Amino acid sequence: MSGEDEKSYAGRWVARLRGRVVAQGGSPEMARRAAQSRYKETPEIVFMPTNFPMTFPPILDFVRSVLPEGVTVYLVGGAVRDVLLGRPIHDLDFVLERDAIKMARLVANALPCAGIGIITKVDFYPLDPERDTGRVIVTNEDGTRTLMDFAAFRGPDPSTGTSRSLETDILGRDFTLNAIALNLSDYSIHDPLSGAMDLEEKRLRACSPSAFSDDPVRILRGVRLAANFGFHILPETRKAMKAAVGLLGNISPERMRDELFRILDGTQPAACLRALDLLGALEVVLPELPVLKGVEQPVPHVHDVWEHTLRTVSHLEAVLAALSPDYNTETASDLLNGLMVLRIGRYRQQIGDLLAAPLTGDRSLRSLLFLAALYHDVAKPQTKKADEEGQLRFWGHDQQGAEIAASRARAFAMSNDETTRLETVIRNHMRILFHTNRLVREGKPPSRRAVYRFFRDTGPAGVDVCLLALADMRATYEQTMPQETWAAALDVVRLMLENWFEKPAESISPPLLINGDELMQALDLQPGKIIGEMLEAIREAQALGEVSTRGQALDLARQKLKDHS
Questions:
Q1: Are 392 and 298 within 8 A, CB to CB?
Q2: Which CATH number describes the domain made up of 63-201?
Q3: Which CATH code is given to the segment(s) 208-287?
Q4: Does residue 319 or residue 361 have the better pLDDT?
């Protein structure tokens, strides 16, 4: 066979007779069946190496080295897809004919002796004993984790007369780009649905007509994958997604939540939400949002509430990209974001570290901030009212919106910490705008008292509020943004971030001069609300530079007690 022939069949299985390729397929069985339909002779079935290098993490070579003789294990799903796309891989999914939990335990037990220096901890547990699925969690020195799932082949139940195999497992998966398998024994590719070709052609195609009725959450996953990879969803796949939207209500809130957070944590979250809306899925996933459509807003707003919300999400993505630790000058190509980088770019590492930290599980604060952006104006339809001059107002939409968002968080079974943070961001999202307008109109920046009270009410979520406020303002004005207003907003945000990141002990959380027990003893008081009020007054006075000693703190407490009586 010539080198040109080898290149044309790269990554495929071929059937050869007397050195000539007579058939080809995505798996050995496909190539063999194609040849048998045309030739009576028994062909040689050979895998043709891919045209590009495949780079795998060292841990995969270790897994390969501990496989028992005669056991064939396949790497499947997103890991193979990402290797073919040249993207880094983090989680590994393996399938084999049987004894998957046993294999997972074998790998977990052997890993501590693997000699892979970055590994600090290995955990194993049966993920789903009924379906013979085990999980290995590898924790690295830098705190990152690698998940390895081992599962028995899925597919039609043996009671139907169809035995489970790699091919039935692949046919039952969601999209062809996730339906490519790698044989660990020889690193050969099994691609019966031509997923590699779909990767090359940048198209998203369902593995089967029943893919979405089998698991409707795949509708959300398809939208996310198309956005993240820049792929085109094929018409027949889009039609099947739309037809299965009515089944989304059967999905558990937790699964819906997890897929939504992956969308919010990925690229182009606003485009994903538009796609979900077109498919009719938005009202199922986020039922509070469709009422925002067509709700007009007064100037300086240039969009209705729904479009403003989506534009806020888009601008938030641009703001975070420009302020990310791996900042690229091209991401701040417009004048306003360029000015933002000049004013507050020095805090990019602190902002990046803060947003990358998880509040619970694998959900990041970054994705929670995007959820806050989605819900920051959710109460505007119900608070819309004209004032005495006929001007539209939305009084209290921040407070009511916080309650609506908290209710959605509880419906999604989010943690108390996540719910509180989400509620805090939305409840306070107008405060930066207030200080910005005051700076523009009166030339007054936030006072020390205002800075202290802002972070007293928001805590670490104050940084989130600052970032959301910048995106909110961009979406409000768009191209009509006065440079004076934007500069003022950046000055306000810079002052807040400077105090939070550089002077917390001075202006936000001053060192404790006296505690409640000491206060009660010194002033001969019983426990009560007045004690908390005194302590808060002392902390605020410290932040303002008015109190710096225990004696001054007691004097202030005595004055507070006198005023109270």
A1: yes
A2: 3.30.460.10
A3: 1.10.110.30
A4: 319
